[in-house]
User: What shape does this take?
Amino acid sequence: QVQLEESGGGSVQAGDSLRLSCAVSGRTFSSYAMGWFRQAPGKEREFVASINRAGGTICADSVKGRFTISRDNAKNTVYLQMNSLKPEDTAVYYCAARPTGGASRSHYDYAYWGKGTQVTVSS
Assistant: This one.
């Protein structure tokens, strides 16, 4: 069973930065595509960014130029660097793993999920 654990969330001011980490158990992390999603209260889960096995990335228009997804296969970890945070970025952020296929914007494509980490941005 693959397990994912997010960390790095917190409460910050608008304009600040945070880096989220997601540690993944198992020996086949390097073969997974990985994604970050977020869910704000009363809203549906929303795609943020995804990275394929080769390091190619895609991201949502709402975070383009501010957020960067990356991975370290030696550490079985995927990161989400978030800069210039805005109050509308406030949400629970989830890490997800996709064992087969490439980077994807659809949460239906991901088989494994972490429990999430809260990010709160105040103005």
Summary: The chain has a mean pLDDT of 97. Residues 50 and 58 are 5 Å apart (CA to CA). The two ends are 40 Å apart (CA to CA).
